[in-house]
Amino acid sequence: MYTHPTSFVQRTFPPMIGCITSPNVEQICRKNNLTFAEMLRPFCIVNVGHRLRDPSANDHLIKILQICIQDVNDIPPQPSLAKKFLNESVSGASCEVTKAVVVNNLTLDIPTECKWFHSWSKTFLSVQYPSDHEFTKHLLGCILVTSAVDPPETLQLLLQSLQQMQAVTPSKIPKWFSQNIFKFYVVVHDVREGDREKAIAFFNSLKSAYGPDHCFFLEINSQQPQPAASTVIHDYWTEYVTRTQELDGSEHGSSPRTPAEIANSLGGMPTCVINESDGSIRSGGSPEMAQEAGEMQQSVVIHPLSPDIEVAPVNVSSNQMQTSDINRVVNSDVWSGLQGSGMQHGNLLTPNDIKNIRSLIKQLIVQVLIPHVEKQIYHLNDQASNKKGVSRSLFTATKRLFSTSKPGSVGAPYNSVVYANDAPELQLRRLGDLYFMFTNYGLAFQAYHSVKRDFAADQAYIYLAGALEMAALSAFMQGDTGRKAVDYMEEAILTYLNSCKLPQFATRATLLSTQFLRERQLYGEAAKQLIRMTSEDSDLRSALLLEQASYCFLYSNRPNMSRKYAFHMVLAGHRFSKAGQRKHALRCYKQAYQVYQEKGWNLAEDHIHYTIGRLAGHLKLLKEGSQSLSSLLSSGNKQTPTQQVTYLREYLHMLHQLNTEEPSTDLNILPLPTVEDNSARVLASASPTTNLMLAFEPDSPADSSVWAKMEELAVTESLGPPMIFRPTIQLFSKNTNNIVNPVVVANETVHVQVMLRNPLQITLLLLRVKLLWEFHKQDGEVISNSTEKEECDTYVDSRVVESISLPPYASQQIVLSLVPLVSGQVNIVGMSYTLTCPAANGVQNTDVPAVRGKQLFAVRGPKIRPKKDQTEVAYEKDNRLNIKIIDALPLLQVDMENFKMDMLSGQIEKTVIKLKNTGNAPLKNLYLVTSSSQLFSISSKCVVSDKIIVEQPPDGGPEYGEIFKEKVRTYKIMQILLSSNGILNAGEEISLPLWIRAPDQEGVTRIKMLFYYENGLDNSTPKYRVTRFSQDISVRVSLQLSAIVHRSNLHEDKDTMNIAVTVKNLNENGDLLGAVTIYLVQISLATAKWELQPKAVYSKDLKLVSQESYSFIARASRSNNEEKEITDVCLQDTVVEPGTVQPYYDFYKWHIYHEKDDVPDNLYKMVLCLRWQGNITCGSEPAKFVNGLSHVTLTDLAVPCIWPEDKNALLPKDQVETLKIFGPDRRSNLSRRLPRRIQLENALSYSLIHDHYIYHSFQERRYGKEKLSGKVED
Questions:
Q1: What CATH superfamily is the domain 402-509?
Q2: Per its UniProt record, what Pfam families does this chain match (predicted)?
């Protein structure tokens, strides 16, 4: 409700008129739930259109005039009651409508109108006591009201009471403008009950006695008992009704008229406080209660405006009418603007009665009030003119000449100047007030400007401040745009504050001044004045003024001050909170947050969030409060652990209270812990064949291609080459194609992994964590487990994790699971859990309530490339959490017994693979595909057929093949023997013996096996399933084997060669496995071109401890049997299994298969294998014996070969690798399939044939001849 400054000033300083009524009149008006003064008040704004003549015979047109009619028994409320009025004037108003304001590209929602501030301003101005330094609150006249049923002497009693009030010296409340006041007589006639003829006769007698202009006959209560709808009038009085307070009949305290009397009355002046519950008056009023109303402290000089002074009413009559018989009305303006008790007013009044009331007011103003004011103006002007410029005494003249103190300065003394009631200064002030109240602002300014110089010379600072204030208002009301009015008002405020110590009048002047400053868009100066009036003595006043100052900063354009707006709005909210106005404090903090939001000012945001949460909690706005505290917990990066514990406790208590008072079937979304967006991974494999967390590790692109290749090979082997092959996805994540829904069989477990993050510095404890889902039945019905219904268990079984502890700042992957029980579709929407604040030992803290809530999962597919005219970012649909459930499929569960995670390089261990069909359908055509065939050996009795498929290296020569040797993959496909009918029924199990050989290189190696199987039922969809098995092996070094081949020059029937072998135990004593002692058992040669000779040179004790080496020589000769691929030489006395049996043959065969070379007839390409036994001892544990197999590949004569070798030594030293950017350079020398130089040098073998012993006597012949022949072979 915007009020123009001129209207606000006119409403603040209306002409005041008193009213005295008889009890019968009040009884007639009470039928309408009104008093007589209240009945008139809504119609006191009149379009007069009348002229007021000034002493210069100039007519001033009064267009609109507002008067105030007040019962003479009305008194301003006592401090405690005034404080209650002010508080309720603010608390009774609320912000209903907001508007958007754009400042610095920031859109802010602010109230359309500040009803609470307007209501407080009106109440604040109404609860003030009238002062003797100004006459705007003094009564100009009195209305005497009787009824036709009153006895004739009633009017005389009313006149007698009026005379008593005027005769009191010093003056009491009510205060009169002068001794010469006008009187207006009203006769009230009740149409429904009174005798009209008798009333008319009584009224005629009044007219003859006092004149027709000063009398009025008012007929009311014309309404019929059952009025028609058309005759029911609007309730005009809702904003004007008053509340009454029963008071005892104690006498008024004497009111000091001047500052001199104030100083003399400090010692014995009584103070009273009204008890809010029973209304009784008690002595000893608290100065704190007076701050809101009078702003008076006992440490400063008390002024007559203080509500601690005048409390007792004046009796209307000493005999017939006692005040105790009438409810004395507290100042009727106090409750203006507040909603009444809700009762209907004016029930018996008709439109004609309202017309009569308007006529009464019009006659009162035009025919009585304005003529009376004209006379007063003439009289006062004459007095002021006759005494103008005459000093009252030599003392006054001396002060005017030698005074140095400046009004308004801090520390200026409060001078108690006494003016007589008829002093020319006061007469001139009265003249100015009359001009001002009757809208002649030009003459009013002249009067105020003239008298202020006299007050300044006399150092009468309170009179000076009043004159300055009214002079400034007069200039403002004339539309003066200069600085004079602003400076006058500034000086008035400072004088009230510093010299007079009267903050209540400074506040009034500030309220009036800022109206005009804002109208002129002087927002900076308005804010300065408002902020100056804030202090510690009144929280409510300070809050209201700070809020208005913040709006001044907001509307300021040069520059825009949105941050000052927010800062002062926070200050206003704080003072509102201290004043008990939590509703407005909450609103202020919410408005300020609009500026601080997402600016990176974490401490400011945290303070606002916490305060909003506390205020909303006190106001029972539990949902809003919990949301604010939730935001506080989500951004805890700048908070201390102690603060975070406090915030978490507050949040849990508030949310617990919300759930208790407002039970809801839906769970609240909790702020802690946070779930990383798009982090959900769904494992559609019902029974992972390895560690669960390992199964959730995303495959690298290379691993994904390996799994896809193994599945494609199995599909091709069983069903033939597919037209379009799409590999099975078992782990759905943000990196997979999730357009198609995952498919899971009923009664199989679905695992979901999400990343939880604890953003706080305290530990979080989650209890009973489980997945939230929606189950879509085939008939379209949707079932959800968020309501904890028992029927949910018949569709999906949700597995519960009892406790999860998240350390400070921790990010932790958790795995939750569920088991769908019937076919349909399960949409996983989030997870539910109980959040609590753990105690120091990590267990649940029973002092803090545990709250059940949820977190929702957010997933989205990859970004879609926008079209030309598309501005919004779009994403592909992601169905990884929307799982399709089907009825019957087989499910192969793979378990491996006695599998060792830590092994020595080359160690061979036997284990058993157990394959069990845990599904609800039979399976057939079981295939095992592995990419690590060199590490496996399966009993041939369990295999129907096997096949090895090698990925060919890129096109190039042998050297090129050596470079890519490690990148070439070999896959082995085996069809597993199931039973005689080739079916593995549901629930059946088979076992496969398996030997695993650890890789030769140290480190962690992952073995991969894929099991492919088909549904034993016909026409099933999908046609097949796969089960992946992967396991990591940690490999420790064991042996390093090196060998070099030399041609033997001995003449034999066969070509022979010597193999020099060196074996070193690479194990160190500090190894985690313990001390390893190696025993050499057997050497084998895997080649079809050579065979080992039993004549090996070695010692009997082939035992190697840590870091010990041993060398020996073995001999091999050309083989005549190409089918004999492996030959052995045992290095121990005990007989061991030959290399032609499983599992050794499978490991040898791997090397024989790779013996083929691009250059034909490579005679010296062979693999030397060494079988060994290890004895591992670790501390006091029993020794463990292991078997192993090491090998080294021999390539050429006189070329040393070492294994394990340095990975960096893949190229010959004399070979320079060509830079390849887009694949191999086919023009380079690497692409020429030519033999290497070392092969050409050893292409020929030769031997000399001669006798071993030759006898020759050199004494007989100085030289001898002996037959010698040579043999050369390609």
A1: Tetratricopeptide repeat domain (1.25.40.10)
A2: Ig_TPPC8_1st, Ig_TPPC8_2nd, Ig_TPPC8_3rd, TRAPPC-Trs85
